[in-house]
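Encode chain A's predicted structure.
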Amino acid sequence: MASTSSESSRIPTNASRVVLITGVSKGLGRALALELANRGHTIIGCSRDQPKLDSLRQQLPSNSHLLFNANVRSNDSVEEVARAVVQNKLVPDIIVNNAAVVNRNRNLWEVDVEEFDNVIDTNVKGIANILRHFIPLMIPKKHGIIINMSSMAGRRGHSQIAPYSASKWAIEGLSKSLAKELPDGMTVVTLDPGAINTDMLVSVAGSLASNYLPPERWAIKAATMILDLTPSDNGASLTVKDPTELSNP
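Encoded structure for chain A:
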């Protein structure tokens, strides 16, 4: 039986991938980068925090990875990263749009304009900037997986973080639309990571964040889930299953 174009463009699950991760210097992005690198995959990462990028570079298991000080809010900054990636003869097989910020807990009418704009510019425009410059690089390869990190707040809404919720609802809609535009062999999904003990959750939930899994534990499950995605998942809104379950000591 002849394979379809989507099937023939799939990368074998055990093949080494090139993975672009934004917001790579801390939290979920850092944990995922380390987990994937330790499994033999090549990381392209970007963040605005140079000291944390430097410390991540020291933890990565080889010198084959590319880390950039870049701001996803800036189209020019993202364009420079894309140009450098091409110069290094790398094209992502997987993109994880992870960079995001959350507003301080406030009623919507109490959030000042600068803070609102920062959330939208980072969480929505930042993803659009990455896609604008990297999808054209992926199309000739006839395969590629795009994971746009979402949140339960972007599917149900959440009080006190309306700007953040709005940004994640926007990413759900953007991803559903993009799924209808991508050529055969390419896939975009949204991924709700669940509640993980990160700086972002601490800012929202305070001390309750300590009840949840650390990013390093989450990344073990999330990495496998991401690597197993196929064109048949295109347009899906996914969730990392049971990420809040703490193991026995």
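Residues 245-249 have pLDDT under 50 and may be disordered.
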